[in-house]
Amino acid sequence: QQQVKQSPQSLIVQKGGISIINCAYENTAFDYFPWYQQFPGKGPALLIAIRPDVSEKKEGRFTISFNKSAKQFSLHIMDSQPGDSATYFCAASRGADGLTFGKGTHLIIQP
Amino acid sequence: ETGVTQTPRHLVMGMTNKKSLKCEQHLGHNAMYWYKQSAKKPLELMFVYSLEERVENNSVPSRFSPECPNSSHLFLHLHTLQPEDSALYLCASSQKLTGAGSNQETQYFGPGTRLLVL
C-alpha cells in the first residue's frame, strides 16, 4: 500500500512557465510534508517543507499548497528555469518516524 | 556538499560476495538512516539509528545488516545479495530533538552508493 502518491511521473514545462507537482497521502497522522530535489549523481536535498497547520508556504519561486481536508499537497515552481530540471520527491512523516516518499517526478524545463 | 559522505560511490559484486557500504556525517547529528532507491519506486527507508537505538523496517531482508559504531558513522554490511538488490543506497542524517512532541527535523542525504549485483 503506497502511503504517498505523487503525480505526474514526468513533466515538461517551457522556460518561464509554472511547474506543478501533486501529492496525496493516506495517513492522517502525518504531520510534516517536505519536498526534496534530486539531481543526477546526487542525493536528495530538502527544497521546502510545510506543516499541516498552514495552507501555503512560499520560498522564492517555490510554493507548497496544502489541503488538509483533501489530504493533498502540491509544489508550484514559478518562472521555471532550465536549472530546475531534476527529480522532485514529496514525502511525509509522523513524529520521529522516518520519511515516506512518493515515487518522484522527473521535471524537464525546456529553454 | 551536504556534510554526508558515502563510500564507495560505485560497487559491483557477485551474489556470493560480502561487502560493506560506509557513511560518515560531519554535521554533529544524532540520527542516521539507510534508504534504498530503485528505478520507478519510492525511496524506501531501510534502517534508522536514532539516539543510539535502532529502528528496523521488518520488510528488509536479513542479507542487509546495519552497524552504527558511533553517531558519526554508519555501515551497511551486504552478503549473498540478489540481482534485484541492485539500486542506489542512500545514507542520511538528522538532528532529532529529545523530549515529547512532533519531531520534524531535516534529513541531509549523501550522494549514494550505486550497487550492481551480478
For the secondary structure, the number of strands of chain B is 11
Residue fraction in strands of chain B? over 45%
Number of helices of chain B: 0
Low-confidence parts of chain B = none
Instruction: Specify the overall morphology of chain A.
Output: globular
Largest sheet of chain B: 7 strands, mixed
Stretches of chain A where pLDDT falls below 50 for ≥5 residues?
A: none
Number of helices of chain A: 0
SSE class of chain A: mainly beta
Instruction: Work out the helicity level of chain A.
Output: under 10%
Mean pLDDT of chain A: 93
H/E element order of chain B: EEEEEEEEEEE
Mean pLDDT of chain B: 88
Number of strands of chain A: 11
List its salient traits.
heterodimer; A: 111 residues; five-stranded antiparallel β-sheet; B: 118 residues; mainly beta; seven-stranded mixed β-sheet; 11 strands; globular
Short structural summary:
Chain A has 111 residues and is mainly beta.
